[in-house]
Design goal:
The protein has 566 residues and is of the alpha+beta class. The strands form 4 sheets. A 5-stranded antiparallel beta sheet has the order 1-2-3-4-5. The chain has a 5-stranded mixed beta sheet with strand order 10-9-6-16-17. Helix 1 crosses helix 5, helix 13 crosses helix 14 and helix 16 packs antiparallel against helix 17. It has 17 helices and 17 strands. The two termini are 44 Å apart.
């Protein structure tokens, strides 16, 4: 996959590039010529065939277009990307330059100032720097460029050269114009260029995001090529739904990271074998057996690791099926807390501590039935069922005490009030799992990334927080996975940097980093309706039909349908 500038660089951009080069910033060839679409047509067509002829025709889902003249470029043709990292010798810091003979030169970059250094107090114009030079500028271009480069150097110093940023969880929406929901690959709503622009604007070094239950090779290769052109490492990643028991269509979501060679094997051997179509529903993989199998097969000694795991959203939005969070599954009695901790101790390198897509201050109590509740739930005369219900009541009471203690402990240490919000529970659980070496992670779980435009006040979800690798790390998927294992062994530091509202009583992202324009909000709502309603509901309905008619008895069918939503 070759990279090349699509047209000659304008004189003012060349002059600016020379000054940037003197300051240690390199102009990247960010316009990538990708292989013709026809190369991937069989894979796209194979995915589309699973949707059935009726749905493809009814919803206008057509076979992948065959315009081989189309080149998917990383950025608009008049954008130029600078990075202080040339060959992996230091971490990334990006500057985007847009040139137009009508608008002049526009320079855009963001300030990575840490929360501990009052980064959470930055207003939007300080987070997102927009500089502009046009015909009415009162100073000459050379002087203006010197001042701009000086500002860039100062802001870039806020990110140490040996601190590497990464996102551990997010989703894709399209692949070369095809909606990934139609391909049964993922349920995001963003296009490749918008995801790439948000990664660049937030100075990411590693992109460890990926679809639900599917390593879709065309999408990975395209994103890897686009990101490599500017200096970002694309790590093969999949959010795997792992049921506690084999055959359950739902279960805790776990991010799985692997080397490219290992991920191809995992896709062929495990992820392709599914009997449900909706992207977030489970492959036929039982959690503990699957993680144990991959750990023993792909991790060889201390210094050669090919697979790593991170628990996603331990407790998630109540509007979603509860059991997709590991801690929520514990609260519902699907798995014991002891077993969940054992799995984390053996196999897991990270645990999500904060997910900005959750309701901000939604309180999550542990439901504990009273003695009268137990009696009312049971028919008199079933002594064994009565005793089981009393044991469940005892289990919930003990779990409630444990969770209260964790929230009280970690809310005090992290500077919040001990409200049992979803994300306070997640933070308490994630930091408590540090006793097994698992690192807490910012869990963006972004499904929509806004279109980035120069000189427009747009901040995407990747600027709400990120994860930091502090120390030496190889600039490759192998290096990233090894760093996660080394962090669990205490050899390197990995920690989340989350921009919480200043003096917040509970974990809440600062308003300056979450504000959207009316246009962006409308685009997000329309994208959600299109993906989850217009295109997603028929797929989910088909899964419900499979559950209804593919069981040995009506009761089995009802239980299976219920498990899709629990």
């Amino acid at each position: 996959m070759a990279s090349k500038q699509v047209k000659p660089i304008p004189a003012k951009v060349q002059e600016f590039a020379e000054k940037m080069k003197a300051a240690g910033f390199h102009l990247k060839n960010a316009h990538v010529r990708l292989p013709p679409t026809s190369k991937y047509s069989p894979l796209y067509d194979e995915a589309l065939e699973k949707n059935g002829r009726f749905l493809r025709l009814f919803y206008g889902i057509k076979s992948i277009f065959t315009n081989d003249g189309l080149d998917l470029v990383g950025f608009p043709k008049n954008w130029y990307v600078f990075n202080r990292n040339e060959n992996g010798e230091k971490s990334n810091f990006f500057v985007i330059v847009e040139y137009s003979k009508w608008h002049g030169l526009r320079v855009m970059f963001t300030d990575p100032l840490k929360v501990s250094e009052d980064g959470a107090l930055l207003n939007r114009t300080k987070i997102l720097r927009n500089l502009r030079y046009d015909a009415i500028n009162p100073i000459n271009f050379g002087k203006w460029a010197d001042l701009a480069v000086k500002m860039i150097e100062e802001v870039a110093s806020h990110k140490p050269e040996d601190h590497y940023f990464f996102q551990s969880h997010s989703h894709h929406g399209y692949s070369r114009g095809r909606l990934l929901m139609d391909l049964l690959v993922d349920d995001g709503r963003s296009r490749e260029r918008d995801i790439l622009a948000n990664l660049v604007l937030s100075n990411m070094d590693f992109d460890a995001t990926g679809p639900h239950n599917n390593f879709f090779l065309p999408l990975f290769r395209d994103m890897a090529a686009l990101e490599k052109a500017v200096g970002i490492v694309k790590v093969p990643a999949v959010e795997v739904t792992m049921p506690i028991k084999l055959g359950d269509p739902n279960g805790p979501h776990v991010m799985m990271y692997a080397t490219p060679s290992a991920m191809k094997i995992i896709q062929a051997k495990y992820l392709r074998k599914r009997n449900l179509d909706y992207p977030a529903l489970a492959p036929l993989i039982a959690m503990e057996d699957f993680m144990g199998c991959l750990h023993s097969r792909f991790n060889f000694g201390e210094n050669r690791k090919e697979v790593a795991f991170a628990v996603a959203h331990p407790v998630c939005d109540p509007a979603l099926p509860h059991r997709v969070g590991l801690l929520a599954a514990v609260m519902e009695g699907i798995i014991t807390l002891e077993k969940a901790e054992e799995i984390i101790s053996k196999f897991v390198q990270g645990v999500a501590c904060f997910n900005p897509t959750n309701p901000v201050r939604k309180s999550i109590p542990t439901y504990i039935p009273s003695h009268d509740d137990v009696l009312n739930m049971l028919e008199i005369g079933y002594e064994d069922a009565y005793q089981m219900a009393l044991k469940e009541k005892e289990r919930l009471e003990q779990l409630d005490l444990t969770l209260r203690a964790w929230v009280l402990k970690w809310s005090e240490k992290l500077g919040f009030l001990p409200y049992r919000t979803i994300d306070m529970l997640n933070m308490a659980f994630a930091y408590e799992m540090g006793k097994y070496g698992a690192v807490p992670l910012f869990d963006a779980d972004s499904h929509h990334h806004p279109r980035i435009k120069a000189n427009r006040d747009t901040i995407g979800p990747f600027l709400s927080g990120w994860n930091v690798i502090a120390g030496s790390v190889a600039h490759s998927p192998e290096g990233f996975i090894q760093a996660l294992h080394d962090a669990k062994a205490g050899k390197i530091s990995i920690y989340p940097e989350i921009f919480f509202e200043h003096e917040a009583t509970s974990p809440v992202i600062a308003r300056e980093r979450t504000r959207m324009s009316i246009t962006e909000h409308v685009q997000g709502v329309w994208g959600a309706y299109k993906v989850y309603g217009l295109h997603g509901v028929p797929i989910l309905a088909r899964d419900v039909a499979k559950a209804l008619f593919g069981q040995a008895s009506f009761r089995d069918a009802v239980n299976r349908i219920r498990s899709l939503y629990q």
